[in-house]
From TrEMBL:
<dbReference type="InterPro" id="IPR036951">
    <property type="entry name" value="ArAA_hydroxylase_sf"/>
</dbReference>
<comment type="similarity">
    <text>Belongs to the biopterin-dependent aromatic amino acid hydroxylase family.</text>
</comment>
<keyword id="KW-0408">Iron</keyword>
<dbReference type="Pfam" id="PF00351">
    <property type="entry name" value="Biopterin_H"/>
</dbReference>
<dbReference type="GO" id="GO:0004505">
    <property type="term" value="F:phenylalanine 4-monooxygenase activity"/>
</dbReference>
<keyword id="KW-0479">Metal-binding</keyword>
<feature type="binding site">
    <location>
        <position position="366"/>
    </location>
    <ligand>
        <name>Fe cation</name>
    </ligand>
</feature>
<feature type="domain" description="Biopterin-dependent aromatic amino acid hydroxylase family profile">
    <location>
        <begin position="141"/>
        <end position="478"/>
    </location>
</feature>
<keyword id="KW-0503">Monooxygenase</keyword>
<dbReference type="InterPro" id="IPR045865">
    <property type="entry name" value="ACT-like_dom_sf"/>
</dbReference>
<dbReference type="GO" id="GO:0009094">
    <property type="term" value="P:L-phenylalanine biosynthetic process"/>
</dbReference>
<dbReference type="GO" id="GO:0005506">
    <property type="term" value="F:iron ion binding"/>
</dbReference>
<dbReference type="InterPro" id="IPR001273">
    <property type="entry name" value="ArAA_hydroxylase"/>
</dbReference>
<dbReference type="Pfam" id="PF01842">
    <property type="entry name" value="ACT"/>
</dbReference>
<protein>
    <recommendedName>
        <fullName>phenylalanine 4-monooxygenase</fullName>
        <ecNumber>1.14.16.1</ecNumber>
    </recommendedName>
</protein>
<dbReference type="GO" id="GO:0004664">
    <property type="term" value="F:prephenate dehydratase activity"/>
</dbReference>
<feature type="binding site">
    <location>
        <position position="321"/>
    </location>
    <ligand>
        <name>Fe cation</name>
    </ligand>
</feature>
């Protein structure tokens, strides 16, 4: 946690009241960080209350004042410069209590010698009687610098799960524009089938059940060949979380070599365990759009299969990669939280930060390795790029013991976020986490330290994103 951040989450006046013990600013900074998660839990019910507001639907069409979407109150950001002395924060915050102005975030940064800049977000706006009285009192009290800040403009991002409908159709290709070197390029039957499946995906919307797909004999045969090749390797190299989930999915989602499981069944199963779900998509999405979906505990999932002439090769994600590589991992809570952490950090993020997050995703969700509690000396895979690729799974998990093996680094999102990677050859570098929980905690710390325009949380009941400070969302671009 950086020293510049003291409280960066939803809280309420009552919590601030308890925090603001008469001590110096530097002292409070440490105290607040340590007690932060407790505050969050204590005020969970308040957040639930206003997120359940009837205004959720009504405000969804508003792009202008994001702080007013989701039934959230309008907020204002304030910058105050305070001299560091014992009790000063307490003295200032008492004006907020006096005028009953609810604080949603406080962040401190050292400014000049012995001075701190405090960024305070509060509910209300200039012109509200109590807000005006508060600002007047702060000025009279002698706060040296007192500025009402403009709302920061951020890239468009979805606020409600229904807005994933806009993203899902913003594919980089239509799922049918095959490259000349694609194994199915000259196969008209295959191309027609791809068009049909792309149409299914495009017709899907957030509140519709996922359509049942009748897979052809040829498609099932291709699936069986991949299954047969992978099955023994999973037993040897997949992490136990994957294997546990696979067993459950054989039972509940009809996972087997002789038929392709239905996305609808898998999604329902995952939702019942971890509240994660699958959502059909017709082709590749941009990193931003794809990661944004994870914030809603939603995984965009293709519905087509690779060409049967090369069952062990695919130049793009297909159902063998999605359903055999990714889906079982979404039955694990730590893995889901980990994925959602990346998704939440991607909302409204700068292009540079999206790039960093996409690299972290690549080296974890796609190509992550972890230790196994039962066999800690062995390398196990949890990344879908490995779990769906027979050659690379063995290569990665054999580690540096083989002569020309890959480099294995300790999982560190900071390092991963800067690491380049090839997309057409085996990875030269893999990251190894102590456990999925370890991967999650490190990812969370990395995301907290990103210079994000706001902090976001997802309310799975209202399927809405809550943000902790006022921002302006740019218009959606199709
Ligand atoms: Fe993938």
């Amino acid at each position: 946690m950086k020293a510049s951040r003291i409280v960066n989450r939803v809280t309420a006046v009552s919590a601030i009241r308890r925090l603001a013990k008469p001590t110096s600013i530097a002292g409070i900074r440490t105290w607040n960080v340590q007690n932060f998660s407790t505050q969050l839990q204590e005020h969970e019910h308040e957040w639930q209350e206003f997120s359940n507001s009837e205004t959720v639907e009504k405000n969804l069409n508003s792009n202008i004042l994001v702080s007013n979407v989701s039934g959230e109150p309008i907020r204002t950001s304030l910058l105050m410069e305070l001299t560091d002395r014992v009790g000063v924060l307490h003295d200032v915050l008492r004006f907020f209590w006096k005028y009953d102005v609810n604080i949603s975030r406080i962040e401190s940064r050292p400014s000049n010698l012995q001075k701190f800049d405090f960024f305070v977000d509060f509910e209300g706006q200039i012109g509200d009687e109590n807000v005006d009285k508060l600002l007047k009192s702060l000025k009279e009290f002698g706060v040296q610098k007192l500025l009402v800040l403009d709302e920061k403009e951020v890239d468009w991002f979805p606020r409600h799960i229904s807005e994933l409908d806009l993203i899902a159709n913003r594919t980089l290709d239509a799922g049918i524009d095959l490259e000349a070197d694609h194994p199915g390029f000259q196969d008209d039957v295959y191309r027609k089938r791809r068009e049909e499946l792309a149409r299914f995906s495009k017709e899907h919307s957030w509140n519709k059940p996922i359509a049942h797909i009748e897979y052809t004999k040829d498609e099932v045969h291709c699936w069986s060949m991949v299954w047969d090749k992978m099955e023994q390797l999973w037993q040897k190299y997949a992490c136990h979380e994957y294997l546990d989930a696979l067993e459950l999915m054989k039972k509940h989602c009809n996972y087997n070599r002789d038929s392709i499981p239905q996305q609808a069944d898998i999604s329902k199963f995952l939702e019942s365990r971890t509240k994660f779900k699958l959502r059909p998509v017709s082709g590749l999405l941009s990193s931003r759009d794809f990661l944004n979906g994870l914030a809603f505990r939603t995984f965009f999932c293709t519905q087509y299969i690779r060409h049967s002439s090369r069952p062990l090769y695919t130049p793009e994600p297909d159902i063998c990669h999605e359903l055999l590589g990714h889906a079982p991992m979404f039955a694990n809570q730590d893995f889901c939280d980990f994925s959602q952490e990346i998704g939440l950090a991607s909302l409204g993020a700068s292009d540079a930060d999206i790039e960093k997050l996409a690299r972290c995703y690549w080296f974890s969700v796609e190509f992550g390795l972890c230790k196994d509690r039962n066999t800690p000396s062995e390398l196990k895979a949890y990344g879908a790029g490995l779990l769906s690729s027979f050659g690379e799974l063995e290569y990665a998990c054999s580690g540096p013991v083989v002569e020309v093996g890959p480099t294995i680094l300790e999982w560190d999102p900071e390092v991963a976020s800067k690491q380049d990677f090839p997309i057409t050859t085996y990875q030269p570098v893999y990251f190894l986490a102590e456990s999925l929980q370890d991967a999650k905690m490190k990812m969370r710390r990395f995301c907290e330290d990103l210079p994000r325009p706001f902090f976001a949380r997802y309310n799975s009941q209202t399927q809405t994103i809550f943000i902790d400070r006022p921002v302006q969302r740019k218009d959606f671009e199709d």
